[in-house]
Amino acid sequence: MGSARPEDIERVLLTEEEIQQRLREMAQQIDADYADRDLLLVGVLKGAVMVMADLSRALEHETVAMDWMAVSSYGSGTRSSGVVRILKDLDTDLSGRNVLIVEDIIDSGLTLSWLITNLRSRGPASLEVATMFRKPEAAVAQVDVKYVGFDLPNEFLVGYGLDWAEKYRTLPYVATLSAHLYA
Ligand code: 5GP
Ligand code: MG
Fold first, then answer.
1. What is the pTM (predicted TM-score) of this model?
2. What is the DSSP letter of 23?
3. Protein residue with least CA distance to atom 10, ligand 1
4. By alpha-carbon position, which residue is closest to atom 8 of ligand 1?
5. Which of 3, 106, 138, 169 is the Cys-Cys partner for 163 at CB 3.0 to 4.6 Å?
6. Distances (CA, A) of 177 to 10, 30, 155, 168
7. Is 109 in the pocket of ligand 1 (CB under 6 A)?
């Protein structure tokens, strides 16, 4: 299990237990909603690997398929531009499938809204979104998200799939980083 130096962590916002409990609740809801339909989970690399692994295993649904996309957002700085390039596309034909996009976190929602438009054009029977975390600004992009784990404050977070220069991704909890790291 991932770990961090205690002095690097400022504040733990969600413990491992809280995340796993919420995942079980989300899984129950998804199981109920997809009881009589096939389900294809589409994860966005790399942040969604943790939620994909835990959510998919918490589902009791018998026919859960999984596929992955890697995308990169064009643009300068740390803000998402909404202009997206596909680095790795799906292997699966989406026509007639019940697709559930699995995301780690929705910030501006620009990446996700591009993804929804892209996947919808491939003719799925249904298309919904599950995200573990969501920030307040996500409201701006008006993305319709059916399953949300937690609404979190507008701070830079690490853990449970969220990295800082590839560090802290494997932490089982979600935290903010100490200011000394940014200095
Ligand atoms: P957006 O919704 O702005 O288009 O982009 C969301 C993506 O930005 C997420 O998939 C994630 O990779 C990254 N992101 C957004 N907020 C955070 C955060 O607080 N911490 C980390 N590590 N990544 C974030
Ligand atoms: Mg992501």
1. 0.93
2. H
3. 105
4. 107
5. 169
6. 5, 32, 10, 10
7. yes
